[in-house]
Amino acid sequence: MLPALVRSARNGLFTKVGVRGFASQVSEMTVRDALNSALDEELARDDKVYVLGEEVGEYQGAYKITRGLLQKYGPDRVKDTPITEAGFTGIAVGSAFAGLRPVCEFMTWNFAMQAIDQIINSAAKTLYMSAGQINCPIVFRGPNGAAAGVAAQHSQCFAAWYSSVPGLKVLAPYDAEDARGLMKAAIRDPDPVVFLENEILYGQAFPVTPQVLDKDFVLPIGKAKVMREGKHVTLVSFSKMVGYCLKAAEQLAKEGIECEVINLRSIKPLDRDTLLASVKKTHKIISVEEGWPQCGVGSEISAVMMELAFDELDAPVLRVTGAEVPMPYAANLEAAALPQIDDIIKAVKSIA
Amino acid sequence: MHLSALGAARHKRGLSELLCALRAHAATQSDVLALLRHASATVAPCQPRSEGAPSRSGLARGYTVSTRSESVAAARSTVDSYLEVPGGRVPYTAELRFLGGPDAPIPTMPCYRTIDSTGQDVPGAHIPHPLSQDLALRMYGAMARLQTMDTMFYEAQRQGRFSFYLTCQGEEATNIGSAAGLANNDMVFAQYREQGVLLWRGYSLDQFANQLLGNALEPGKGRQMPIHYGSPEHAYQTISSPLATQMPHAVGTAYAYKMDRQPRVAVTYFGDGASSEGDAHAAFNFAAVLGAPCLFVCRNNGYAISTPAHEQYKGDGIAGRGPMYGIPSIRVDGGDVRAVYNAVVEARRRALGLGLGGQSGGQQQHPHKGGAGGGLVMEPAAAGGGGGAGQAAAAAAGPGPVLIECMSYRSGHHSTSDDSTRYRTSEEMRAWRARDPVARFRSWLGAQGWWDEVREAELRRSTRQEVLAALDRAAQVPKPPLSDMFTDVYAPMAATAAGGGGAAVAAGSGEGLGLGLLPHLAEQREATLEFARRHPGVCPPDVPLR
Predict the structure, then answer these.
(1) Do A134 and B520 touch (CB under 8 A)?
(2) Is residue B240 within 8 Å of B189, Cβ to Cβ?
(3) Distance of CA B546 to the CA centre of its chain
């Protein structure tokens, strides 16, 4: 429809795009508003899209992501549900089987474990089990990973688990541009999409161009973005850790170490091409994630780099991850359990 | 006591403020009571919403609807004859009494039946939809074919022709009676013991055999284990193994139909055991809250593998739970095909919000006579006839779920992986086999003069031959090719283009994406096929590569 709006991974934020001469004026938008506006526009665009979850309607959303939507679209399109993740997920999946396009909110992805059978055994596998006959165009979304002081049962990162399941697409936006473009892509996609947001990022504002604000701004699924170019080390990450990597890169640049920062955006499918192109340039790669180390996203990146870029590597692939403990509550312990900017810097210096 | 002064202020103050003021004035208890009595006579209680007015929150009838202003008014109400809470209006009692449980069980819901165990009409039975000869013979034919097909496929599994089978012996009437009461396009979310529904809708013996053998003709491309049928063309969702997960699915689909204003219901079948799953509770509760036109058909066949029903639940079965969710419910003799049929036809009408038109004559929906597509025209709620206010109220309540519990007995083993003689006696099984629903209906047909032994023998003989022939044909068909293994993990890209400005998936060949092969899957497929070509001995001989 509007191919010029689909960004290539290598364009920086301020590159002019093709034929359309957009003004270079840039405004700011929080991730919360980015998600809200994306949902709003997609609800308006396709009347099969609807939102359901706990507190999404009258309460305006537990994190206010769905603010104003009930008032605008009514209770048929924005449904407050009883407290049963398994129940409302199953119902959303069933409605998707029948042709609706639900956006199913989990208050946090931790609670989605009560519905994980519906996500995997029903949503992810049904297209395959039915040999292509039954689609499930559903988006599961909610905050993932650590917040602040919410401890073990509210802080787990689920990127690794869901990204191992064939049939799911797994997206993790970082900034407002990601939030808008990936949310629209997810809603328009015919497959079930796991959309991992981050509570801390909701309130953070990022610059957005008029292009990003266009109602048909859609990012490609399966394509990572190079946030910052560099030649010494590649830092690959997703969600909040992208911001940490960018800050680490700024500090390291002062010491003459140029980091290339890659924002995965899509955990499944994983954009191996962008990673490989970067490693061919830097020959060193570090994966940064909040989640636990064993079988994390970094494990997959390590395996892929070893299999496909063994000869390019001048150092082992390093993984900076969360500590292998259930998240503690005390603020000092929580900080110690999560990667900090200094941890990233230390990792880079150990191989740079 | 300055009652008048306080009384003057009462209109401006809430009850708690009033009580504080009274305490401050050291009022006596009788002063307070007098004031309250005075206040209750003049403060207008929340008025119940009229029956039939659409409720914003969709609460079941019998509760007052709480909009925000009404909730606030309720919180301030000082009326003493009932309690007004966000969930509704609750009358008070001075009695301390526990209801339900082993000490004070609620009455067992009776079981609707129209044909007794010997095949005779139950005198005075209420039969809103009598069976014509044509329909009765079609039903019997399906039940007999189902029984024969089940027996033969079971035996074929024992002979090693495929890995797994399960029969619905003892539940033929539940399968066929319910199927006949539905429209052809009512979406079925089955558990796994409802092959009779597929058979009724026209799934052929060849299709059954192909699925069981997982060959290349099987629409499921050999992806699913045996008996996990699925057929969108017959409005039958592909069977999913985890129990009861299909129940919320059905509610979601029913909700989609309601939003789209389609005159269809979603039907979900589940067993007595599956009803213990959390998903069952969520589905019941949710369907009632959403007003989803969903039929819940519970096959209570007495066993969940080896767990007898009396160890599965302590309440009044599954039908007994329905009313507690706000769902109209009925218990039916699952061995009486006419009773099942009538209950399902009525339940379907009720689910669509057409009201219970049982007693009226002409304006019935007869799904089995529907056109090939099975789409029904929504008729207005049953005209004339008896029932009056109750039915009018039912019609005005709009679409909603209905629960039917079919009581029967699982005559066969749970599956070919089970030997039920280890947990039940042969006497018990023999006693129930004697009440075989197929035989019971055959007796009834004989009493009508519509069936005889000659036709019976011929039907059985020809069905046996057809099943054998179908199995033989299916065995000749090669398995699906290896190249199919990686397709359908994701939807083909053509589907996204239809969405407009769609979510393009980066890279990957056009042809691959057209098969839903994302780049990593296309690579894996190529690597697998390459390996198989280089090592032909590794690949089974009846699996082509392509």
Answers:
(1) no
(2) no
(3) 41
Do the Cβ atoms of B491 and A191 come within 8 Å? Answer: yes
- CA dihedral (B118, B119, B121, B127) positive or negative: positive
Structure tokens at B148: 């024969």
User: What is the 8-class DSSP label of residue B408?
Assistant: -
Of the candidates B331, B321, B325, the one whose C-alpha atom is nearest the C-alpha of residue B297 is B331
Interface size A-B, in CB pairs within 8 Å, comes to 202
**Alpha-carbon gap: B46 to the closest alpha carbon of chain A (Å):** 23
Reading chain B (546 residues) residue by residue, the pLDDT tens digits are 444 444 444 444 444 454 445 455 544 555 545 554 554 444 333 333 343 344 344 333 333 344 667 667 666 666 677 888 888 899 999 999 999 998 988 899 999 999 999 999 999 999 999 999 999 999 999 999 999 999 999 999 999 999 999 999 999 999 999 999 999 999 999 999 999 999 999 999 999 999 999 999 988 888 888 999 999 999 999 999 999 999 999 999 999 999 899 999 999 999 999 999 999 999 999 999 999 999 999 999 999 999 999 999 999 999 999 999 999 999 999 999 999 999 999 999 999 999 765 543 334 444 444 333 333 333 333 343 444 444 555 446 799 999 999 999 999 999 999 999 999 999 999 999 888 999 999 999 999 999 999 999 999 999 999 999 999 999 999 999 999 889 999 999 754 443 333 344 554 566 777 888 998 899 999 999 999 999 988 888 878 887
CATH number of the domain located at residue range(s) B118-148+164-191+229-417+440-456 in this protein? 3.40.50.970
Which residues in chain A have Cβ-Cβ distances shorter than 8 Å to B238?
126, 129-130, 133-134
Structure tokens at A85: 């993740």
- B485, B524 Cβ separation under 8 angstroms: no
Domain residue spans of chain A: 27-213, 225-350
Domain residues of chain B, as ranges? 5-91, 118-148+164-191+229-417+440-456, 482-538
HSE at residue B519, side-chain half, CA atoms within 13 A, is 15
Residues of B in contact with A79 (CB under 8 A): 290
Task: Name the token pair of B99.
Answer: 């209801």
B403: three-class secondary structure by DSSP: strand
Taking CB atoms and an 8 Å cutoff, what residues of chain A touch B489?
Answer: 127-128, 166-167
Q: Which two tokens stand for residue B212?
A: 């069981």
**What's at A175, amino acid-wise?**
D
Of the options 3.40.50.920, 3.30.70.120, 3.40.50.970, 3.40.50.300, the CATH number for the domain spanning A225-350: 3.40.50.920
B266 touches chain A (CB under 8 A): yes
* C-alpha pair distances (Å), A216 with each of A175, A184, A310, B497: 18, 8, 40, 14
Choosing among 3.40.50.970, 3.50.50.60, 2.40.240.20, 2.40.30.20, the CATH entry for A27-213 is: 3.40.50.970
Q: How far is CA B433 from CA B148, B194, B413, B524, in A?
A: 15, 19, 13, 52
Edge-to-edge strand ranges of the sheet holding B294-300:
B111-112, B329-333, B402-407, B294-300, B266-271, B187-189
- Fold matches, A27-213 and A225-350: yes
Q: Work out the angle between the directed axes of helices B15-24 and B3-10 (0-180°, nearest 10).
A: 160
Rounded distance between C-alpha atoms, residue B434 and residue B519, angstroms: 59
- Chain B: residue whose CA lies nearest to A77: B259
Alpha carbon distance B109, A30 (integer Å): 57
Helices (DSSP H) in A217-296: which residue ranges? 240-254, 272-282
What gap in Å lies between CA B265 and CA A72, rounded to an integer?
29
Torsion of CA B185, B187, B193, B196, to 10 degrees: 0
The model's pTM is 0.80
